[in-house]
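Summary of Year 1 activities. Much of the first year was spent building the evaluation harness for sequence design. The harness presents a backbone, in tokenized form, and records the residue chosen at every position. We chose the following record to illustrate the format because it has been used consistently in internal testing since the harness was completed.
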């Protein structure tokens, strides 16, 4: 009997993410009508998904800009930058100002509700007075 498998979590994560990526590629094609070409080249798996039956899709890399002048190309570093937290002090300042405003609004709402409930309790007769 062998010991714990150090690579098990990595394999499980890979399988789960690959399955999700494949499902999303198919859904994007099927539901949204997009033409999708997905190529996965990994030591654990080689996979190609092409939503089009035509061999002309996708066009060769050299002619992509000609076919799609508004093409938005992203590299690994471009995508990685989208997920990093903002380091811009102005954006952080705006974020915290908006959160503070929301907190003040919630506090005022809480005071209003508390006040309304305390006024309602003062107006309702107690059980002893209602029985008389």
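For this record, the design step produced the sequence shown next.
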């Amino acid at each position: 009997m062998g010991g714990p498998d150090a690579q098990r979590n990595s394999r499980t994560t890979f399988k789960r993410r690959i399955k999700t990526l494949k499902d999303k590629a198919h859904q994007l094609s099927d539901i949204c009508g997009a033409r999708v070409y997905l190529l996965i080249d990994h030591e654990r798996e080689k996979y190609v998904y092409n939503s089009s039956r035509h061999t002309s899709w996708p066009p060769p890399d050299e002619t992509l800009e000609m076919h799609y002048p508004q093409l938005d190309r992203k590299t690994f570093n471009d995508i990685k930058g989208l997920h990093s937290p903002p380091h811009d002090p102005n954006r952080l300042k705006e974020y915290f100002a908006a959160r503070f405003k929301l907190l003040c609004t919630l506090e005022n709402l809480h005071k209003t509700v508390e006040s309304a409930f305390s006024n309602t309790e003062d107006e309702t007769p107690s059980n002893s007075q209602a029985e008389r």
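The longest helix spans residues 89-123. Quantitative recovery figures across the full test set are reported in Table 2.
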